[in-house]
Design goal:
By secondary structure, the chain is an alpha+beta fold. It has two domains: 62 residues, SH3 type barrels; 166 residues, no CATH class. Helices cover 22% and strands 38% of the residues.
């Protein structure tokens, strides 16, 4: 086969018939003729089996084919770039999602931490703060058959925060539930005129005592120990302070004009924050003196 005819087939899809020396049957190879090397005597063919060489001496015939060659998957350089850009976009998106998720987690953890600290502080305050009732004393009428006034000795609990007496509520249960609050004009120092608790005047030069002003809905306070004057100055008690809360049972139990012998009465002193002071007392059968120890 002459060179000029072979050159026309380069780049075309051809059917190439070859026969090896000594073989009886010929074989057929189909593919693109990529190049012809006359010097070494080879035809370079790109077939479905890959790129190969056929000896020119074994070629019996070459015929261009009209059939379409199966498409080859060739990746262009631009395709590689597109894949890289897509991967980069996915990677950046993953980083952004992770950053948003981390930001949400951090903000949530900070919020939870603040709430936990707030709840912890409130819980500590609720547990450690409060009022303790140390003693309860009664004051009878002249006939010594009914208790007309109560004096409750109270102090803050150990480790308690400052307690505002003007914000505490005193509930007393006898036949009905009565709620009392502080009369801020009845906050007096126990040493005023150097008299007993139940005879303490409303102020240093007054002729009437604190008992004359406590009512069914209001109680008075007598400061027993108040080094920093927090009780008389701001109506607050703190560590080391002790006060008497004076209650008028005559006004509360008006049907009996006081608490009769053998009768019971209960109550609760509830501060703004913290544990309340609870009491439950029973009047003795006989009042030997006007001042009666009930607690």
């Amino acid at each position: 086969m002459e060179k000029k005819y072979m050159e026309r087939l380069v780049g075309k899809y051809c059917k190439i018939v070859t026969k090896e020396p000594g073989e009886e049957r010929a074989s057929v190879v189909t593919g693109f003729v990529e190049d012809i090397d006359y010097k070494d005597g080879f035809i370079i063919v790109d077939s479905c089996q890959g790129l190969g060489c056929l000896s020119i001496e074994t070629v019996v015939a070459i015929k261009p084919s009209n059939k379409k060659h199966p498409k080859k998957t060739n990746l262009k350089e631009d395709d590689h770039a597109l894949i890289g850009i897509g991967t980069l976009i996915v990677f950046i998106a993953m980083i952004l999602v992770a950053a948003v998720a981390a930001s949400v987690i951090i903000q949530t953890s900070e919020t939870l931490q603040q709430r936990a600290q707030s709840v912890g502080m409130q819980t500590i305050r609720e547990v450690s703060s409060g009022i303790v009732i140390e003693d309860i004393t009664g004051y009878t009428n002249a006939s010594k058959n009914k208790i007309q006034y109560l004096a409750l000795s109270v102090r803050p609990r150990a480790g308690s925060k400052d307690i505002d007496l003007s914000l505490i509520t005193l509930t007393i249960l006898y036949e009905e539930l009565n709620v009392l609050t502080l009369n801020t004009s009845l906050v007096i120092d126990v040493n005023c005129n150097n008299v007993s608790v139940f005879q303490t005047p409303q102020y240093s030069t007054a002729n009437h005592t604190i008992l004359n002003n406590v009512s069914q809905t209001e109680f008075g306070v007598i400061a027993i120990h108040d080094e920093d004057n927090s009780v008389t100055g701001t109506n607050g008690i703190n560590s080391g302070d002790r006060v008497y809360i004076v209650v008028n049972l005559t006004a509360i139990i008006d049907s009996e004009n006081g608490l009769p012998a053998r009768e019971s009465i209960s109550g609760e002193i509830k501060p703004e924050t913290g544990a309340p002071g609870v009491f439950d007392i029973t009047a003795p059968a006989v009042f030997s003196k006007r001042i009666v120890d009930l607690w």
